[in-house]
Design brief:
Helices cover about 50% and strands about 10% of the residues. The chain is an alpha+beta fold and about 450 residues long. The N terminus is likely disordered.
């Protein structure tokens, strides 16, 4: 596809292209391009980087599935190697296939059901410290809960102080990581700029946490069935080799960061949406009463909480934690009728696609009922893809869905959660994941009949 005769606004500025607009508000920028130019939109980031925004589900499928061997992760994601090494998020081709094959057994249904007990126990333990009538920063609470869950289910470790152990380092990695990803010039980390020093310190701290977990496990004679235990004992079917210590650490760092950040955001957005829609919240609590009554949630309740699952799907539609996918063209390829050259970049935004009125009625409205029908069977596959797709689909998607539903059930059974009066509308902050900007503050009230009430 030639870009010589593009409209002036698609050519961008001479040196920066559209980088300034993209950095200022990527969600608004990509939404505007979609509304004005449709399914396949070229633009530039910097003086030389050609980018193509794809909004057609069939073309997205070509990139993620049928022609995925012609693409690699985008350069901005590759910059995350300084943080997560060669984990599943950043590794490519043969290494990625090998690592995914080793890790996949940890996410079988039988494992996830067992993890469900830890999800519930961790959540209830955390909620035991809540007080009726408190004002809480619910976004921080969800980070704490999901960190506790990932620590227990993946590493067999409890963090008594929750996210406070790593919250500053985690926040630095998220904010500085995305800043580095979007910068035209990325100074090597050995250059002691202010941001480089902060990022290196954060990475060093997170490394130390994982080093401690691994060291303690190696000293133990107990055989563990959590992710760390499975990975430490996993063998390649072809040659019998095991994962190196470095690769093990890279995978743990990836799961450590991605495995709780995304779910925490999904939970926060869902609680925010429930608070904004009392009618949906009432149906949610009615289902909890019908399914669980006054008992304690169990993993088996997950499949029975159909409406709660629909609530989560609708929340993932409106505020997908993974809101954009980028790929770099590795070999010249034709996508649809468009010729892409090696070095070109394509982007596909779940946030934009999920709000496309060509596929969703009232796309900006929170309507969980839409998922109670056969909507997903009638939609093109990649009109709705909150967990990505193809060989690189999120390996923990079923884990994350169960975790979100069970945590919501634990909270909803015991508490009514409302936004504080005069709470501003929450704006999405597109960092590495889609966070609620400045968090979400809420009032928690014990529900009549709840345990301890």
């Amino acid at each position: 596809m030639k870009t010589d005769n593009l409209p002036l606004d698609l050519k961008g500025k001479l040196l920066t292209g559209h980088l300034t607009e993209f950095q200022a508000d990527p969600l608004a920028f990509l939404t505007k391009l979609t509304e004005e130019y449709g399914d396949f939109v070229p633009f530039r980031l910097g003086p030389f980087q050609r980018v193509f925004l794809i909004n057609d589900p069939n073309l997205i499928k070509e990139v993620l599935v049928t022609k995925q061997t012609s693409f690699v992760k985008s350069k901005d994601i590759q910059t995350l190697k300084t943080i997560v090494g060669e984990g599943l998020l950043t590794s490519e081709k043969d290494l990625h296939k090998r690592q995914r094959k080793l890790i996949q057994p940890s996410f079988k249904r039988s494992h996830i059901i067992n993890y469900g007990h830890d999800m519930i126990d961790t959540t209830l333990h955390y909620l035991s410290n809540w007080q009726n009538g408190e004002h809480r920063l619910i976004s921080e609470d969800m980070q704490n809960i999901t960190l506790g869950i990932i620590s227990k289910t993946m590493f067999g470790t409890d963090f008594e102080k929750g996210a406070k152990i790593i919250e500053k380092s985690m926040d630095a990695v998220m904010k500085l990581g995305i800043k580095r990803m979007r910068a035209i010039v990325k100074p090597p980390l050995w250059i002691p700029t202010k941001n480089n020093r902060k990022l290196l310190a954060a990475i060093k701290h997170l490394d130390a946490v994982l080093d401690d977990i691994i060291a303690k496990r190696k000293q133990s004679s107990t055989r563990y069935e959590d992710l760390l235990g499975v990975l430490m004992n996993a063998k390649n079917e072809d040659d019998g080799t095991m994962m190196s210590d470095k690769q093990l650490k890279d995978e743990l760092m990836t799961i450590f960061l991605a495995g709780h950040e995304t779910t925490a955001n999904a939970l926060t957005w869902t609680l925010y949406l429930l608070a904004k829609h009392p009618d949906v919240d009432a149906k949610f609590h009615q289902e909890l009463s019908n399914v669980i009554d006054s008992g304690t949630p169990t993993p088996e309740h997950f499949s029975q909480l159909k409406y709660t699952q629909s609530i989560v799907w609708e929340s993932l539609r409106l505020y997908p934690p993974a809101y954009i996918i980028g790929r770099q063209v590795d070999t010249d390829v034709t996508i649809g009728n468009y010729q892409l050259k090696k070095g070109d970049m394509v982007v596909m935004s779940q946030y934009v696609m999920h709000r496309n009125n060509a596929y969703f009625d009232q796309p900006d409205s929170f309507l969980p009922e839409r998922f109670e029908t056969d909507l997903l069977k009638t939609l093109p596959t990649y009109a709705f893809f909150p967990f990505g797709g193809g060989p690189r689909v999120c390996i923990g998607n079923h884990f994350a869905l169960m975790e979100t539903v069970l945590v919501l059930a634990c909270i909803g059974q015991r508490y009514q959660v409302n936004l504080l009066e005069n709470h501003d509308d929450v704006k999405p902050q597109p960092l590495i994941t889609l966070r609620p900007k400045r968090g979400v503050k809420m009032l928690i009230t014990e529900r009549k009949g709840a345990d301890g009430a």
